Amino acid sequence: MNRATLSLLALLLICALSLVASQQRTRKLFVALERAQIEERKLNQEWLRLEFEQRNLSKSARIRDVARTQLKMIPISQEKTLFIKGGL
Prior knowledge:
Radius of gyration: 36 Å
Helix content: over 70%
Low-confidence stretches: none
Structural class: mainly alpha
Strand content: under 5%
Number of domains: 1
Number of helices: 2
Mean pLDDT: 90
Shape: rod-shaped
């Protein structure tokens, strides 16, 4: 074999190895992309669940219920209200 044939064979071998390495990197990046997309979907579902929960917790009926049961608050009545007349 002459020198040109050996250098072309070496160049072909380098190109083939480069192609294999490139395909492997592509596969790894694709797998990472798929995992990131799955994680994104999970986070979006969690976000929607938290928004729903926040809407339910911020409803006025829920706030009133918590105020009565946990904080033992009662509505204001006229008998317990004291009006002060101020005069300058």
